[in-house]
Amino acid sequence: EAVEQLKSKLFYLQSSGDRYLFNNQANLNRLMLNNMENVKENEVTELESELLRKAIGGFKFRTYIWEENSGNILDSEELKLVVLKKENKKLVNELIKTKGQTPRVNRNTLFFFYPMESERSFFSNVIKRKIALENIASDKNINLTEDQKKEVSNELKKLKGQIDEAIRKLYRIIAIPEKDGFKTKDLGIPTFGMTKNLDEEIYDQLRMDDEILDKIAPLVIKEKYLTARDYVSTAQLFNSSLSTPGEARPSSQQVLENGIREGVFMGLFGLGELIDDNPQSVYFKESPTVSFSGNEIIIKNTICEEQIKESEKPKVADKPTPESEKFDFRGEEIETDLGKIKKSVKLKIPVPKGKVSNLMGMMNLLNMKFKNLTVEIEATDGSISEQDYEDKIMETLRQMGMEI
């Protein structure tokens, strides 16, 4: 044991298996320790930053590494991962609440990741060892024997795996926004042989903990939002998931859209519009198109069922035609005892930007009043890719069972 300790103290004590000797060749162990003592902290910091950037592959998050200026972190709908140099509760709260000088809107889209300081010593030792070995290998003033060169090369190869493990052991704490600040989650010790990027591992853990949702069950939407209310805005639903810390976070708008579409198709709730503060069902037990705009709302299934029954009651126009009716030869209007009524309607309307959803109520009314309703769409002065046309236009029509 004493001789083993001397190997790290004496420059010229060599070992070969269980044999020890002195010669005029520098002891590699002592050379390395000397070099490690001379490694500057900024060298360790630079390598730590480089290793972090390699370990995080931009899997599902927009990533910010060691960013402390809230103005540089986007206030967008996408999920964001902010990697901090060290634990800083004050900074986490500041980044959640503000973007520069203005309040942050999408607070629920941020996640934070920082090191566990009790692992710092092990990490620094591994990094310094790597830098020291590289310095020894490149120093022309040190005359290494062939055996020593081989030993340096083998040590550097071993260190590669240790460094990946060291960065993962060091960076392991996730901070997740919630109603009153944030909560933390420890990723724990890495599984042997794991090859995932750090951000991929974080995403999978958050998904397992239901902090991020890749799928939303329609029943959850119904029970959470329509138990105490008759209707709720789809835009408000999505915006709430982005802005309210602690709310369930869909990984994208498409996830919530799929949940709503499935719920409408199953008849758990309907989709329609709020017209003069009254919910008007447009889709129920069919596959809808969800826009998350205008007055679009999801509606309690009982209200949708009542509206369908109401629309199926006989209308005045369905009664036998009294003899007093006089037909207009244009075939468009009929004059009855109750006044003029239209037997058909043909409209061509230029639709202003953002007003498409406002036409849904009118379309629904026409659909209830007339047996056949045909829509002609002409879109000009713009463009759409073939892929979007096929995936988003044609596929929607196919899912609705409509023929062109």
Structure, briefly:
The protein has 404 residues and is of the alpha+beta class. The protein is built from 13 helices and 18 strands. The strands form six sheets. It has a five-stranded mixed sheet with strand order 3-4-7-8-9. Strands 11-15-13-14 form a four-stranded antiparallel sheet. A three-stranded antiparallel sheet has the order 16-17-18, with no helix packed on it.
Give the SSE layout:
Elements: H1 2-6, E1 13-16, E2 19-22, H2 28-38, H3 41-55, E3 62-65, E4 80-83, H4 89-97, E5 98-99, E6 102-103, E7 110-115, H5 120-138, H6 146-170, E8 171-178, E9 181-186, H7 198-208, E10 212-213, H8 218-225, E11 231-233, H9 234-243, E12 249-250, H10 253-266, E13 269-275, E14 278-283, E15 296-300, H11 301-311, E16 326-327, E17 333-336, E18 339-342, H12 360-369, H13 386-399
Parallel strand pairs: 3-4, 4-7, 10-12
Antiparallel strand pairs: 1-2, 5-6, 7-8, 8-9, 11-15, 13-14, 13-15, 16-17, 17-18
Helix pairs in contact: 2-5, 3-5, 5-6, 8-10
